[in-house]
């Protein structure tokens, strides 16, 4: 039988209320239509009486203004689900084997399509049966292998003959070493040493001989430069990133001198006399002045190394002869201070491979020497470096900013009468080392320098790299250990050798520090000068690259085979939940999303990964199945570290285990600190073994999408770029900028790989890349959406809520990037309103922001005038308190949150601390709180001014002191002593109908849901209601019914009185947490096993008896209610992200609202003292500094 539908029965009074409210709605509509400016002055009193009657009737019928509610929306399935389709071979016109090769060998994607197809003509097929070797030690290492079908095993042969499987190769994966490709190109081909590949099943393999590259490069020398540069970038960003930054390896990566000698000697001509007093140290007659070090360590013979060492010694001898002859006439000159002149940017136009190489090397931002002076000089920050002798080979540095001192020897141009002769002779030797066909290429491109013992030539992390060619003395190279201040000696650069090539070729920051431990004379070539030589003679890049590769240890070559450089297309799954954990990934560029599927089948967003993030490390180290599914939000590049390789490294270098344990503990601790208190709800969507990441953190690319033409999108983007530049280098890309740089055909399909490579290069070179879309759905707009980590939908806050045409079109496409709504408001105009309507019109948005814009943004100007305006603006420093700076901090993950704790009247001190924060220049990007902290925080989020907040809070405090209103609100105490009506009116009077979404600053507060026994975090809805709910003290006020689901809400202090962890999980980098809670006494009386109430009464009544501290029933209940809160507070206070502040307000009681001004002053003076201390120790500077 079908179940009958229920019949609802209405009482008469319900019908009366229903029809009465219906009539009043019509009256209100007619009344509002009558209220017009055309109404005569005589009829105004009648209209006022009518409005009074309307308000009285509305109060009698309990009518409340119906406010729009935010529709709860789930993220679109396209955001949470990976693409299930496989790589589509049929949709491409290229053969399947060509697509395999293109997809897996990343360096090939940087060729133009015709060049790549020409290269693929040399591909051959190779069939291998199970157990058959593809290659073995001793065979030439001169091919790239891509597995098309079957399975391969990459095997490492240990010195004792034991074989270890480093990784398993599946269809589509490749086996090759880019360093081996470089060896073939430079004419230094080597055989396989310890690596072999064996077929684990019958397999079909594609083989591409590396000799094919040489044929291509003869006709296209520009491509040679580009490919070598990509190989060097891969070496530094993939291999070094994995082995050094994450595994903590340092000197294991380089071939270096095993023991550091106290004095280094140079083999020189017998008649040679070194420099005195500021030059080289006096020689020891029985010792030579140089030691030879083999260059070809990675696999060459020792005899060859000795011959090369002797050759370098001979090159250095001629220069030393000149130096010693010059010493007698060399006066002592103080070092010339360096001055810097930035090199102008290279000219715009369609970019060749040379131009792309220039940009990859960041030539446009490098510091160049002034070529107008006789001795070119540049400015550098002085660093004090002290070296302690330690038998372990570890050296400690202490850096300072002092001027030249005995502990900070200067580096300056070499000065003397024969300096030009020495320079010319040294240039000849350098030309031979670089194999220059025309020695005159070095003219005006190298400078002669002299460094005293102890001088630091270049520091680790510096962006402006240069080449250094040692003439006399030697340069020591050190690298800082991970998470330590200690530096490890890597290798020695002797006369006739160069150092600094890797940073010059890649454009990346230096990975080591170069120091002159003794007096040294050297040639310096700037990055720009090297690239100018490379443009004239492209083959020079092979010589320089070979010197870099020769420095690498055999271990690095083995890892180069094992560590994969892989690409994941947008929407493709990297791995799925439940898969076996057999590797760890490092994000090089792009963005990936982690999604967990609950037992009910519901999918939830866990977090996102950006550049340099580790993926799956916890599961791989603990050997647990994958806890989540990770898929690419956009086209991404990753480094893959297989489990077999990691195990091999752990066996060879046991210290890596300690580093991995540290890494694992950091991830687990980060997961614990992200959890929202002891009663964390399942809605967090965080697996215990996953790494929780804020979805909008670590962004690299941001697309700006205007809602309509009236949005000043160009001015908005330029203003945002100005704010972002204060955090890190920022690039604004438009369709016009792209065409200027890559030509008008840049968006054509034939240019796809070049465009992708160029855009990835811009991400590497800049902290944030802004993509400004066109006003219509053009190919550039599609590219912007495809490249974006986050899409900013920009609308005008004072206009009617709307969805733009372009936005509607994109709603029908598979957009995987997160969206944020940004509403612009005019300076001095009305505050935010109707935000809920803006949000309800759209699909799920990850957040929204209100931006107050300066007037010049809305001034209409032609593009030339606009650019001129912002050129002047860029010369000024960005205001860190502006809304654009706040948006910049949100996008870069540098948000500063203010969290205010509960504590009754003691919370009035919050405003004093906020006033002190404003005077100290600390920006506030997010506000949250509990109880009185929720009230003060809501006021500040609405006003954004401590003075206005204080005025409104003082008026409310006066209401709280009203005895008459308090007595009238008394009720029969079944649920509470008061009905809550008077308290509701006081809060409603302050906030009226304001919605949380309409506050200037992102805001949240915390309540305790006693219906579901859980913590509730409120970020939307009626502001006064949720503030009132967060201030609902048990026994005094009744619980507030949540207007969304009817659950009963109480004071949030019972579960989380200082919710700094909530702010952290919402994306805050730093949380300033102000605690004003009561302090419970801990020195209670030990009364034994039993307690008599009569005894306690006698102790209290007897004036001569000793007082005992025993809690009464009310205090016991209060302490029980706050047990979880106390535990949570201790976790927050010990967190690294939290700056904990507690003003001295213990003498004030919970209901001392009459002492508002006194409590405010206590908070203000304590805040001034704390923030002055922060300024003294640069804590404020660290707070606003970029998280990277």
TrEMBL record:
It is an enzyme of class 3 (hydrolase). A motif (GXGXXG) lies at residues 902-907. The keyword DNA damage does not apply. GO terms for biological process: lipid catabolic process; phosphatidylcholine metabolic process. GO terms for cellular component: endoplasmic reticulum membrane. A motif (GXSXG) lies at residues 929-933. SUPFAM superfamilies: cAMP-binding domain-like, FabD/lysophospholipase-like. Residues 107-217, 449-534, 562-667 form the Cyclic nucleotide-binding domain. It catalyses: 1-(9Z-octadecenoyl)-sn-glycero-3-phosphocholine + H2O = sn-glycerol 3-phosphocholine + (9Z)-octadecenoate + H(+); 1-hexadecanoyl-sn-glycero-3-phosphate + H2O = sn-glycerol 3-phosphate + hexadecanoate + H(+); a 1-acyl-sn-glycero-3-phosphocholine + H2O = sn-glycerol 3-phosphocholine + a fatty acid + H(+); 1-hexadecanoyl-sn-glycero-3-phosphocholine + H2O = sn-glycerol 3-phosphocholine + hexadecanoate + H(+). Pfam families: cNMP_binding, NTE_Ploop, Patatin. A motif (DGA/G) lies at residues 1051-1053. GO terms for molecular function: phosphatidylcholine lysophospholipase activity. Residues 898-1064 form the PNPLA domain. The keyword Cell membrane does not apply. It is found in: Endoplasmic reticulum membrane. It comes from the Eukaryota. Keywords: Endoplasmic reticulum, Hydrolase, Lipid degradation, Lipid metabolism, Membrane, Phosphoprotein, Repeat, Transmembrane, Transmembrane helix. InterPro entries: Acyl_Trfase/lysoPLipase, cNMP-bd_dom, cNMP-bd_dom_sf, LysoPLipase_patatin_CS, NTE, NTE1_P-loop_dom, PNPLA_dom, RmlC-like_jellyroll. Its EC number is 3.1.1.5. Belongs to the NTE family. This is lysophospholipase. It comes from Nestor notabilis (Kea). The lineage of its organism: Eukaryota, Metazoa, Chordata, Craniata, Vertebrata.
